[in-house]
Specification:
Blueprint: E1 4-13, E2 16-26, E3 31-35, H1 42-50, E4 57-62, E5 65-66, H2 72-78, E6 80-83, H3 95-102, H4 109-122, H5 124-127, H6 139-151, E7 157-161, H7 169-186, E8 189-194, H8 197-203, E9 206-211, E10 214-220, H9 221-225, H10 228-235, H11 237-243
Parallel strand pairs: 3-8, 3-9, 6-7, 7-8
Antiparallel strand pairs: 1-2, 1-4, 4-5, 9-10
Length: about 240
Amino acid sequence: MTLLRLRDVEVNYGAVRALRGISLSVEPGTVVALLGANGAGKSTIQKAISGLLKPTVGDIEFDGHRLNSLSPREIIRLGIATVPEGRKIFKDLSVSENLRMGAYSRSDRAGIAQDQEMVLDLFPVLKERTKQLGGSLSGGEQQMLTIARGLMARPRMLLLDEPSLGLAPLIIADIFRILKKINADKGMTLLIIEQNVHVALQNADYAYVLQLGRVTVEGTAKELQENREVIASYMGTQAHAAAG
């Protein structure tokens, strides 16, 4: 059974149509990438799935549940956790407190403690900084903390918005290595919104390319890796740079 499905979804910002009939699906246990240049509609899809924006047309379903009218909190409880663009951590809270904030919708104290140990094992650098304020971490460490906080909700699907943005190549490689481990070891479904074509296709099973609020190309990551010129025609110099 398909885990996430968007059918002919349209989203407006006032008079501006940001999504124009988007249809896509995500199968359980897979890594799916959404690619596109700035303004393609990637973050609008993230907000629509998370409940921050409501579709004007079409349906969004997760595990058979229609999400269109649900609140962000209800969507989290169904099993979708979002890792937002820009590393939106609580800078005045410690690493440990940030992690506990990720589990705010849960009441199983023993499970929360167990999951905190699990995410700290995944991100050893955070284990060394549990009492350190989030705002004092480096950019890469803050991104790791944001991902770890999302995992504390014990989601079935992790929705990541531009996880490589502004990070050095070695940090990006480390973060995607951990994401692949989470996918492989826990069977967690990952939907990754990215501008970095190279890193996304290296780590995804399937990918969609967006332009101006529409899906223009889709296929397996391998197919799209072999079809870089098509991707570049929709993403411009960003795709050429990433391919190099």
